[in-house]
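Notes taken during the Thursday session

The instructor put the following on the board and asked us to keep it in front of us for the whole hour. The protein is F-box-like/WD repeat-containing protein TBL1XR1. We were told not to look anything up and to reason only from what is written here. First, the residues (492 in total):
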Amino acid sequence: MSFSSDEVNFLVYRYLQESGFTHSAYTFGIESHISQSNINGALVPPAALLSILQKGLQYAEAEISIAEDGTEQRLTESLSLIDAVMPDVVASRQNQQNQQKQVEKTEIADTNGEEAATVVSTQSESMEVDTAIEIPSSKATVLRGHESEVFICAWNPTTDLLASGSGDSTARIWDMSDNTTSPNQLVLRHCIQKGGTEVPSNKDVTSLDWNCDGSLLATGSYDGYARIWTTDGRLASTLGQHKGPIFALKWNKRGNYILSAGVDKTTIIWDAASGLCTQQFSYHSAPALDVDWQTNNSFASCSTDQCIHVCKLGMDKPIKSFQGHTNEVNAIKWDPQGILLASCSDDMTLKIWSMKQDTCVHDLQAHSKEIYTIKWSPTGPGTQNPNMNLILASASFDSTVRLWDVDKGACIHTLTKHTEPVYSVAFSPDGKFLASGSFDKCVHIWSTQSGQLVHSYKGTGGIFEVCWNSRGDKVGASASDGSVFVLDLRKL
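Then, after some discussion, the predicted structure tokens were revealed:
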């Protein structure tokens, strides 16, 4: 067996991408010249690095479990990855296995059958699925077409068109309106000019967002360009000003401006009609990771520099800056009224900010690992559900989702059924349900009132994104194996 440094670098790069370390992947990709390698990323399956490491670990365990007389003996304790690369530890474990074999030869005891039965019993219990809440496959439409991981998906706000964005350098629009098992798909190829001709950019589509009336779709890409598309798949305009990948992209409510955040440390407000840069903001000292509009002309941005800035069109400096996080800030979201700003970070905290004060209103510490994303419920004053309390949801790499009462600064529910990092959460339009997607391949749907698991569906790849359609009767999800699927919740 032989492998090149290019192959190793590519697998590490892909692992960083799949683990959510987007900006780290970008930096590593530049330094290791990934783009100059001849590896076709579309052919490399998800979790390839983990798969090959796991096989190597199994081989090391197999070597240890073979006794000197050639017989095989079950390991009493699994080998860790670090142990497997330390010759002294491997040799020590091999000696322990041989000694154990000698002891067993001198003992007369027949407990193997009983022990095996116990192991099988425990395993089956842990694998048990509550069929009462499992969504049947007849209610799931799997959409195939993408050739790489699908990082994002979003429903059109007025029709049942589902947009998805992938590492295969395409976005796709799926027409889910007629409930067919093989819906029409429009392929939006992200191309760049090279030698006077258009060629595929071969860069990930990192972000997408529909405008308020659903007539236009904006996408952001690792190739540094934002693009605006019509619902029939036509490229309306290309927005080029960032010097490097775009990490986030949002339309304002009026639909006249698009906001983007890039690895070049800047945020840009674009005029949607002309496709020109209206204003570029250069206040961060490191890549900008997320942006969110507060009003039609003011917004917040966050960065790996641990800072949050609130900026306004026409102003040459931030109108407010918030500091308090001790690690990079992954996501920010204004509440439905644009009064409170929530932020989450790799420092494992969730913070609530107000324009009325410099320090955070609440510093919510409960998660035990990085918090990847947050969402406000569409409830409370200023929403279509004014009689329901406002809730904030947080999704973490600790495999949990938490629901927070922001007025009290208290955790209402901890949702613990996932077994891997949770990458996405989304509230139903009426605020009564929350969908969550995890790398355990499961989409769970919870009651926001009771915190109980209501429905569950297991797909074929780790879930990057979940989203509800405008009527609240379908949930879309995108996954690491290139699949997109739609769950029909009617008559469940």
